[in-house]
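Before relying on records like the one below, remember that each one covers exactly one chain. Contacts with other chains, cofactors or solvent are not represented anywhere in the record.
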Amino acid sequence: MTASDLAFPVVCVYKGTIFTSKTLDALTRTTTAALRGGLFNGLQIVDSTGKEYTVKNAKKLHGIGPFWGFNVFLNRTVRVDIEINDDPRALSADEVRRLVLHDFRAWYGWESRGDFDELKTAVEKAPTVAEVIRLVTS
């Protein structure tokens, strides 16, 4: 199974924290440093239908942008091909909500949002997985 089969937007869980991707393009765009650092190793991806996938393999396809993706710091922006497991686990809205609320408590960057209290309340009340993910990606 490939990342193009996911229902976007998605929430990704990496080392206990979450990040979101609105599109396949955003999910498969990274740097060579992040790829070497293991960003995709065991990455868990929860799509908008509530299915949780684990990344089995990620490989660099090509550079993106001018100068083949290289920047002045000699890092490179690249497109990756992500292979994910074929047997996803179904998550409920409560399980996804718990993931997101845990990250709200673990990473204080969320609180820098001017609407953090409203966001937290909306996530707590969101009836579906898709709604929880939509709230944190907006």
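The chain has a mean pLDDT of 91.
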